[in-house]
Each structure stands twice: as C-alpha cells, then as structure tokens.
C-alpha cells in the first residue's frame, strides 16, 4: 500500500488539475435583454427622456445566515442564507459541467439606468432615452428634455437554500440540491420636465423567481437577466402608455 501511495497522490493531483477552472466575469451592463415585441406605432415618439441614477434603499445588512444552518443534524436537511446585496457577491453564477462558468458582476443600481435606456430603444418607444451619467452636464440644457425618470431599488434579496439529504446525494445523478429565489421590488416615477410635482407614472414592480443548481450545472445566474427583462419590459410598456396620455 505504501508503494502505491505516490501513484494515488499523483492521480489525485492530476484529477484536481483537470477539473479546476477559472470563472469568467460577465458585466451586468451586458446582460441580454429579450424584446419580444415593440410598442404600438401610435406610441412611438422622439420625446427626449432623461434617466436619473437609481436610489438604493436596501439597508445596512449584506446577508443573513438562517438559524437552521447552525443546528447539527438539521443543517443536513436545510441550510439557508439571505443575500440582500446579491450583486455584491458571487451569487449570479451560471454554467454547466465541462463548460465555461461565468459570474455576472456589477451593481443593480448603477447598471439599471443604462439597461432601461437600452430597453426603451429596443422596444422602439423613443431613440432619445439617455442616462444622465452619459451626458455632459456642463454643455447640456436639461430643460430640453421632455421627461425625467427616477427609480428606487427597495429590495433585491436572493435566498439560497441547500439540502444535503436527500438532494445532495441525488445530485450525483443530476438532481438539483441548491435553490435560489430572487425577490425584488423596484419603484419608478416619471415626470414631465415642466412639472416635477405631479408624476405621469408612479408604480412599483415586483419580481419573484426561483432557479436551481446541482453538482454539474448552475442556473442561478439567469436570475439577474430575468429580473432586468421582466421589470424593464413592464416599465417600458407603462411608460409608453403614460407618455401617450
């Protein structure tokens, strides 16, 4: 047995080297936005829309490990963590065994205005929507814009739930063993530049979706794209109605 030990050790090292991998970073601003339809031709316009930075209201806590995770025996059945700032963690990973795993990196509040402007353009509401961070404030007359958009991120919590028995064992056969639920709340207000006291649109958008991960795949990275697509799709449709009226 002693003679075989170096061989066994060498095989372990080779195995680890073969299955180690580097995680690629995908910028959040490059999240794919899927537009199934454009706004009605009667709503398409050349109105100029200025999108202000999103206000982050998520609070002071980054994450919270749920109590069952600390109880011996119970933790085999359930371990959970709530991430209140999932965009400042490695939660949004996706990939499959043998593929090239990626992690979406960025900031929801920072990237939201750019993605909102892109969604507005993709749905052909107007080509004149722009985040305020993309313009030169010294040389731009803000009163030349027709509408301004303000947004607030009230919640963007990802709850990670892990089950070792039995799902962790069945994971060797391809079953999921980790579940990720994302629950988000975004408030959007739109004003005419000539009347900042009365919003033409004020609405809160809710998002709730669950994805799974196993030993050979990670789907939780899809959550951030699904979040942006659902919220921005609905917000753009409502914006089109508000501008038309």
Question: Would you write up a description of this structure?
Answer:
By secondary structure, the chain is of the alpha/beta class. The protein has one domain (24-244). It is built from 5 helices and 12 strands. Strands 2, 3, 4, 5, 8, 9, 10 and 11 form an 8-stranded mixed β-sheet that branches. Strands 1-7-6-12 form a 4-stranded mixed β-sheet, with no helix packed on it. Helix 3 (108-122) crosses helix 5. It is elongated and about 75 Å long. It starts with a helix and ends with a helix.
Question: Separation of termini?
Answer: 82 Å
Tell me, rounded to a whole number, the average pLDDT.
88
Cα-based radius of gyration, to the nearest Å = 23 Å
Order of SSEs: HEEEEHEEEHEEHEEEH
| Major beta-sheet overview | 8 strands, mixed
**Count of discrete domains:** 1
Class of secondary structure makeup:
alpha/beta
Total number of helices? 5
User: What percent of the residues sit in helical stretches (DSSP H or I)?
Assistant: 10-25%
Low-pLDDT ranges: none
How much of the sequence lies in strands comes to 25-35%
Apparent shape? elongated
Strands, total number = 12
Compact overview of the structure:
The chain is α/β, with parallel strands linked by helices and 245 residues long. It is 25% helix and 30% strand.
Notable characteristics:
four-stranded mixed beta sheet; eight-stranded mixed beta sheet; single chain; 245 residues; alpha/beta
């Amino acid at each position: 047995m002693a003679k075989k030990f170096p061989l066994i050790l060498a095989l372990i090292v080779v195995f680890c080297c073969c299955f180690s991998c580097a995680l690629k970073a995908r910028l959040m601003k490059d999240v794919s936005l899927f537009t199934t339809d454009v706004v009605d031709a009667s709503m398409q316009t050349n109105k100029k829309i200025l999108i202000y930075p999103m206000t982050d209201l998520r609070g002071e806590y980054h994450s919270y490990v749920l109590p069952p995770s600390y109880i011996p025996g119970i933790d085999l059945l359930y371990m959970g963590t709530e991430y209140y700032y999932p965009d400042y963690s490695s939660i949004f990973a996706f990939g499959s065994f043998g593929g090239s795993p990626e992690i979406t990196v960025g900031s929801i509040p920072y990237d939201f205005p750019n993605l909102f402007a892109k969604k507005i353009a993709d749905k052909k509401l107007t080509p004149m929507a722009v985040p305020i961070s993309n313009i030169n404030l010294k040389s731009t007359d803000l009163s030349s814009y027709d509408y301004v958009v303000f947004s607030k991120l009230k919640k963007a919590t990802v709850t990670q739930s892990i089950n070792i028995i039995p799902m962790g064992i069945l994971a060797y056969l391809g079953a999921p063993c980790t579940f990720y639920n994302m629950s988000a709340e975004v408030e959007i207000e739109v004003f005419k530049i000539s009347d900042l006291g009365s919003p033409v649109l004020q609405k809160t958008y809710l998002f709730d979706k669950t994805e799974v991960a196993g030993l050979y795949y990670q789907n939780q990275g899809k959550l951030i794209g699904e979040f942006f697509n659902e919220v921005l799709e609905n917000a753009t449709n409502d914006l089109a109605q508000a501008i038309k009226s």
